[in-house]
Design goal:
- This protein has 6 helices and 7 strands, in the order H-H-H-E-H-E-H-E-E-E-E-H-E.
- The chain has 159 residues and is of the alpha+beta class.
- It has one domain: Alpha-Beta Complex (endopeptidase fold (from Nostoc punctiforme)), CATH 3.90.1720.
- Strands 1-7-2-3-6 form a 5-stranded antiparallel sheet. The protein has a two-stranded antiparallel sheet with strand order 4-5.
- Helix 1 runs antiparallel to helix 2.
Amino acid sequence: MKDPITLIDAILDAYDRQEFQPLPDGTTFCNQAVILVALGMGYGELRGKSADEIVQFIAGSPDWSLVPIEKAQEMANEGSFLVAGLTGDELGQGHGHVCVIRPGRPVYSGKWGQCPRVLNIGSENFIARAKKGPLTNQPAGLNESFVPLPKIWVLRSTL
């Protein structure tokens, strides 16, 4: 199902979840937010997966296709469901990170040029503006979610 209104509603539902706020011990809930948006888009195959497991599953699934960063914003604006992610190994961390590309205008990144806007649930939850770091109160996108450039996949049934 390709539907920008359904996608926006699912993204806002995930962003508004109080239980997705980072915990003082460092526990974050990016995987749960991506799963919730996936369910809102009619896709249940990510249930119960960690961020690493989501990235590994999507990378090997015929349901998903890799997308270049330059195409991601336009596809999200049309209502396609896209997930950006890297495993913990790729990030050099204990666990991976995933986020949803959201409809909106792209934002400029000093790292990658124009990059898509995201729903980020993690050590910082944001949907529009960074709340901390060098871009505090500035428009934030994929550039604030990852240090290395992540892979981006689209759910084929939403093309």
